[in-house]
Amino acid sequence: xxxxxxxxxxxxxxxxxxxxxxxxxxxxxxxxxxxxxxxxxxxxxxxxxxxxxxxxxxxxxxxxxxxxxxxxxxxxxxxxxxxxxxxxxxxxxxxxxxxxxxxxxxxxxxxxxxxxxxxxxxxxxxxxxxxxxxxxxxxxxxxxxxxxxxxxxxxxxxxxxxxxxxxxxxxxxxxxxxxxxxxxxxxxxxxxxxxxxxxxxxxxxxxxxxxxxxxxxxxxxxxxxxxxxxxxxxxxxxxxxxxxxxxxxxxxxxxxxxxxxxxxxxxxxx
Length: 270
Known about the structure:
Elements (H helix, E strand, L loop, with lengths): L2 H6 L4 H12 L3 H7 L5 H17 L3 E7 L5 H17 L2 E8 L27 H5 L6 E5 L2 H10 L5 E6 L4 H8 L9 E9 L12 H12 L3 E5 L18 E6 H8 L12
Parallel strand pairs: 1-2, 1-4, 2-3, 4-5
Antiparallel strand pairs: 5-7, 6-7
């Protein structure tokens, strides 16, 4: 690393450098390193997924958002997909899952945080959002409990990146079935973002954190863990979203490929 580059990455100069990268850079890896997009968490996950797909020889992946609401996140996800697809040549389809009517009925106890959420929060203007969506992007409207099994049964590219922002424990449990139902399609490492794990009201006995723990207990072949090493090489290592990124490890697929590959299957995806 040059002296100039080191200076550009130190406060207060890194803010000016960040704005320059955001305005002029077309390199996905540079954008990712600086987090120079609206949703750097989405960008990091999509880029890592595309690199993983290339490593596995998979030509197309799915990038998925659970909990679309107004749609800003889904639009950002399709923008990230376009940049990453252009550089990696891995095709990326984008899917957004939502009721369209806001949050569904909460479960009748603390697990859905009734102190925080209410039924019908985050209603969607479906018509307005559809006007903002690119050809690569598809809305799946309805209760996640119903739409996920249908999606898994269809012929889609494997899940490479998934954002969980359905807020509720019950909805997150339903969304995680994408990684456990018979016929599931995922990469050996599928990259995840959980939106509701870092607020003052979050704890491991409710919400998304409980859903993750229960998923790991119930599924011997797929395990969810923190995305380790994500801060390595990044300029803004203090960003809160870095602690909200996870990976779903397909232990069954990893075991099957262990004897067929001489080198270890690892790659720094930070």
